[in-house]
Structures are given as C-alpha cells and as structure tokens.
Amino acid sequence: MAKVKGAIVVDTERCKGCSLCVVACPLEVIALAKEVNLKGYNYALQVVEDKCNGCTSCATVCPDGCITVYRTKVE
User: Fold this and answer.
1) For the chain, what is the domain count?
2) Host domain of residue 28
3) Rg of the Cα atoms in the chain
C-alpha cells in the first residue's frame, strides 16, 4: 500500500480563528498564526510541513469551508 502525504491550504482571509481545526487534527500540524488577517482574526495554518497525512478532519470541522486538503501518493 502506498503512503499518502498531505498538505492543507487555508483561505486566510475567510478564516475566523475558531481553532476547531487545531483541535480536530490528530497529528497536531495546525496552529493559529500570531499574525491577523484583514478582519482582525488569527488564522489557521499548517505549522509542521511533512507530518500531515491528508485525513481531512480539519476540513470537515471547518464551519466556513476555509480549508482545502491535498493528498499525494509517496512511493
């Protein structure tokens, strides 16, 4: 079975910093940024690059649909 490597892209201007994705991530690769977006919210971002497995837990719990998950097979 091929391994899967994942990565997330967050629409930082739509993110309200609710941190539901941070709690939902089983591998703890998401955190809230210290910076704020134009609306004044600390947005979510992927802080650990190579640990995401693309499980989509973060995208599933995001109430605003700000997270897109990408998966690639690794040989």
Assistant:
1) 1
2) 3-74
3) 12
